[in-house]
# Entry
Amino acid sequence: MRSIKFTPLVLLLVVLFAKAQAAPFSLQSSSEQQGQFVQEKHLAVLTQPFITKGTYHYQSEAGLIWHTQHPVESLLRITTDGVSERQAEGHFKSLTTNSQFSELLLALFSGKQQSLQQQFSIEQQDNTLTLTPKSTQIASIILEISVLIEDNQIQKIVLREPEGNYTNIFLSQLDSSEQGQ
# Structure
């Protein structure tokens, strides 16, 4: 059951990396980003994918909010203190205080490429980046991450996990004129 609870954190890692541009090791620095996601979780034991939809919002001062809206609402908050989940009563409960993991996520989203290079081997072929974890902790959860980039926008992320499970994440970023509406 632990792997199911940990899945949102793995997916956040993927989404955070998605801010990378097409050039290898070139990340755009940003103090605020937001958009929508559609996530298809393919489990080897199921014939149909489990589909979730929602939004994400990053601010350098506040961290990252990952808001799943369908089919079940949940809200994760990632800060330098760790990862927490909003409870039904409205307060946040800590899921982990592993600052190494949350700091890596925040570094990716903010465009700090040094952490990314320390954690992943990165290859680029045409418009696809492939990341392979260097850390055994991450490699035990993520075998490989592929990121499809078209027109300088992340279109699709594929996360391959042990035991044949994989996740497709389709992203649509809001541009600066849409933010705040």
Observations:
- Confidence is low (pLDDT under 50) at residues 1-6, 14-28.
- The first strand starts at residue 32 and ends at 42.
- The two ends are 38 Å apart (CA to CA).
